[in-house]
Amino acid sequence: MHIVQPGMELDVLKENSKIANANYRLMKEHGIKSVDFMGSIGAGKTALIIKLAEKLRSKGVRVCAIAGDVTGADDYTRFEKSGLEAVNCSTGHECHLDANLVSKTLSKINLDDYDVIFIENVGNLVCPADFPLGTDYRVVVISTTEGDDMVRKHHDIFLHSDIAILNKIDIADAVDVDPEVIAGDYRKLTGGIKDIYKCSVKRDQGLDEILAAMKL
Ligand SMILES: Nc1nc2c(ncn2[C@@H]2O[C@H](COP(=O)(O)OP(=O)(O)OP(=O)(O)O)[C@@H](O)[C@H]2O)c(=O)[nH]1
Ligand SMILES: [Mg+2]
Prior knowledge:
Elements: H1 8-29, E1 33-39, H2 45-58, E2 63-69, H3 74-81, E3 85-90, H4 99-106, E4 116-120, E5 137-143, H5 150-153, H6 155-159, E6 163-167, H7 179-189, E7 197-198, H8 207-213
Parallel strand pairs: 1-4, 1-5, 2-3, 2-4, 5-6, 6-7
Helix pairs in contact: 1-4
Bound molecules: guanosine-5'-triphosphate and magnesium ion (MG).
């Protein structure tokens, strides 16, 4: 049985914030820009990071990825196979990365060797929202294959993110999903001021706009 003392949750979040601030300062001291990719299982986070990193590397930007997963090294292996230098970061049981895990992972990276660090969070649209890691941008990735109701069901993660991405627009018709419905929900949630970025990693559509949104 899990017993949570009153106030314990707040303490955990406060401690996470402290470490996230330290991660941010550390990466800034080394001139690094960083992005936390949160999002659903299978939305295309790994595929997106690989493609964005390829584009940056072709311009001479030095990129490293942190592969956050509960267990295993599948995403880490995919990063490395694509030529993207990476470090694996398993949470063991947890459904999200936290600032402390990222701090420990950063200590394994020679930070002077990189300009950009992309962190792939554990696939989950709930838990990562509460745990900032100390990155410049927090991004949430969903895809058309999850249906058209993800924004309506998961307000928190969209409100905690700087950038929202809808991937797999190439198969929207096949899964009977209208990307405009999702775009409309996101616009409504953000008070009509923000648009979701629509892309297809597979077809290399919309990716330059995403890099521009991250000022990369
Ligand atoms: N049709 C299509 N498939 C895509 C696209 N992007 C990714 N995929 C496929 O979607 C599947 C899942 O992609 P991943 O990159 O592993 O997704 P992920 O979000 O990293 O998954 P987890 O790490 O398990 O949460 C793979 O089979 C990809 O090839 C896309 O734009 N279009
Ligand atoms: Mg992945």
